[in-house]
Structure formats: structure tokens, C-alpha cells
Amino acid sequence: MAAPPPHLERLAEVHDVPVGSMRTAFVVLRSLRHALDRNGGGYYDLVLGDASARIPGKVWGDERAYGELAGGPAGEGAVVKVMFSVGMYRDALQLTVKRLRVLDESDEWNPVSVWGEGWDLVEGLRCKTLVFDIETVPAVDLETAPESVTKAVHRAADRYDGDTSKVMGLSPFYGKVVSIAVGDGEDPDGPVTALVVAPPGREDDAYPEWIRPMTEAQLLRSFWHLADSAEVVVSFNGRGFDVPFVQTRSLIHGVPARVDLMSSPFALRPHLDLYRLLAPNRGNPASASLDVICWSLGIESPKGEMDGSLVAPTYARGDIEMIATYNVGDVRATRSVYRHLREHLLPFRKDW
């Protein structure tokens, strides 16, 4: 009986494996598409991934893995064990999968190696259409900051009637993320969860199930986990504010920004910015705010007594629940706008 092929602990190690060699690995089925070749034979295009890499692969109709996929429980997002041969196609690495099965209790695998550090913080929150919104507050004490930094903040504050708090809250260099609300865009009545940074002194408090307290670094890592596992990320003015802020804060914390949500500004995937879709070239975002869009579409507005200008003082007095409620309301409204566009606009776009 032949010995089993060597096992890769990290998929990225396949780059050092000679072409034609056999290996096994624990991976996530990032994408899975069935197609027919010119002779009518079936095959699968897929992308295998773990925390270290994503590699394209093929399952040909004459491989045992083809039947295992066609008749088995494995689908997109499933963690599986694969046996594959290493090959090249058009000067790029491609894996030919020979065997494939969903993991069971007998498999000794490390979720961190597959999903990445912090995977447990978003357990139960992964979805194909991730709707999100962030709330930010100042994070820099100007009295202890270098003089050059203080001067830069005051110069920028001249545009806001000297309001240094607003400047810092809107800049990832002087501010921080204290809440990211996330929800499933395909579930109109589904729960929305707020990942929050507890105010000083409230780190050990008990919070309701829909609020998950953590550090800012953990919050950022959680966001990228969710964005990485989603097919599309939906925001309102996310290209103009949320994503650049989260991306820069991630760089400051040394958290990998695992998905490119900023390139191809007019693309609808992987980042669908509803503001860009509904109000291109409108200038001031306030003229087509989420509140205005909801009103025009007959959707309940998320705005109440709370607004963005009150987030910083609300956080300063320790009321993270109010911020989370406000944040969740924006995600519910954004989800409703997305679902309206998904029915009346997106199906007729060739790029969707």
C-alpha cells in the first residue's frame, strides 16, 4: 500500500513543491463552479484557500474528487481535506484535485491555520453579502502629542470652526474605530451585530448578545475575516470613508487588510458602495445622505436622536450601547437600500 502524500500545514508552502508532486492540505472551498468542456464532459473550477494563500484548482470529470463533489456535502465555504497534484497553467500555479472530503471529528486540524488568527471572534457571522458601517472617535491626546501633530490638527480644524474633536474622529491617524456593525444582506430581518471597543473601565462589563466587545485590533481583524469570506461587501460611502479608515487603522495595528476593497472604483464587486451607485458626482455626500436616500425610497430612516456628531461625546461618557444601537440602525437601513437596488437595478447591470 502506497504511503500517503506529504501534508502541507500552510497552503502557501505549495509554491516550493515541485510540479507533478502530490500533497494533501486542509483548506476552505473559496469558490466552486461547475462547467462543461467542449466534449460535454463536466469539471469544476475552484479556489482553495487558507490563512496563508488562495490557489486556483481544477477537478476533472475522471477524478474521484468529481464524484465526491457532485454527490457529497461539500460546497462553497466548507472546510475540506484535499489531495492534489501540483501543476502549472499559463505560467500560474494550478492544483488538480484528486480526492476531497468534508472534515469530520477524527481530523486534527487547526482553525487558525485555515481561517487565520481571530477566526473565533466572528463565529456565526460569516455571510455571502456583508453589509457594514463603522463609528469612530478621537484617539489622540493633543496635550501629549508632538507639536507638529498638534499644529496639523489645529490647521485642519480651521475648516470645522476649530473643532479638533471632529478632525480627529474623521482621521484614522488621530482617531479610532469603536464600533463596526455587520449584517447579512440576503436576510432582510436577520440580526445585526455590533463589534465594539468597550470604553475605558467597561472592558469587563456584561453586554447583550448582539454586542461583542473586543480591542480595536481584534475588531479590525474580525472585519477583514468577514470581508474575506463574503462574495460582496456592501457599504454606504464606504469608499469615501469607512474602508480607507479601517484600512489605515489596520496598517497602524499591523493587521492584514485581507481584501482589496478600494481598487476598481466603479466596480460593483467585491465592494458595492451604494452611495457611489446612487449619487455619482454629486459632490457633498450630505446632499445624498443615507437618511435622504431612505426617505426617497420609502425606507424607514435610521436617524433618531443620535447622529454622527454625538458619537465622540457619547463614547466619552461610556455609553457604547447607544453608539452600537445607532451603528446597527445604519446597517439595517443600508441593507434595505441594497435589497431595493438588488430587485430594481442590479439585475439589469451587466457588471453585477
Under the CATH scheme, the architecture of the largest domain is: 2-Layer Sandwich
Mean pLDDT: 92
Count of domain modules: 2
Task: Tell me the total number of β-strands.
Answer: 12
Stretches where pLDDT is under 50 for at least 5 consecutive residues are none
| Residue share in β-strands | 25-35%
**Derived structural class:** alpha/beta
Q: Helix count, per DSSP?
A: 10
Shape: globular
Taking the alpha carbons of the first and last residues, their distance comes to: 50 Å
Portion of residues within helices: 25-40%
How do the helices and strands follow one another from N- to C-terminus?
Answer: EEEEHEEHEHHEEEHEHEHHHH
Side by side, the strands of the main sheet go 10-9-8-7-11-12
Largest sheet: 6 strands, mixed
What would you say this structure looks like, in words?
With 352 residues, this protein is an alpha/beta fold. It has 2 domains: 7-115, Beta Barrel (OB fold (Dihydrolipoamide Acetyltransferase, E2P)); 119-139 and 174-348, Ribonuclease H-like superfamily/Ribonuclease H (Nucleotidyltransferase, domain 5). 30% of the residues lie in helices and 25% in strands. It has 10 helices and 12 strands. It has helices spanning 64-71, 111-115, 147-157, 164-170, 216-229, 238-253, 274-278, 290-297, 311-316, 320-344, and strands at residues 7-8, 22-36, 42-49, 54-60, 79-89, 92-102, 129-138, 175-184, 192-196, 211-213, 232-235, 271-273. The strands form 2 sheets. Strands 10-9-8-7-11-12 form a 6-stranded mixed sheet, with helices on both faces. It has a 5-stranded mixed β-barrel with strand order 2-3-4-6-5. The longest helix has 25 residues, at 320-344. The chain is globular and about 75 Å long. The N and C termini lie far apart (50 Å).
